[in-house]
């Protein structure tokens, strides 16, 4: 899936930790600033906007992918 590939590539830029869709964002060893950078880069690449409220609800890598796919369908 294209969205998943984009998310994985962006995360790989920020961490060397192995991860998958079920990985908790907190386990990726990226700080809150890195998370903001991650989301910002994805927003630019996909031309979408993620609100602060949506950002705070993201717990797993799959949550990021699912949110992006939902936004891209709109």
UniProtKB/TrEMBL annotation:
Q: Which domain of life is it from?
A: Bacteria
Q: Which PROSITE patterns match?
A: CARRIER
Cross-referenced InterPro entries, in alphabetical order?
Answer: ACP-like_sf, PP-bd_ACP
**A Pfam family in this protein?**
PP-binding
The chain positions of domain Carrier read 1-72
What's the protein called, per UniProt? Answer: Acyl carrier protein
Q: Which organism is it from?
A: [Mycoplasma] falconis
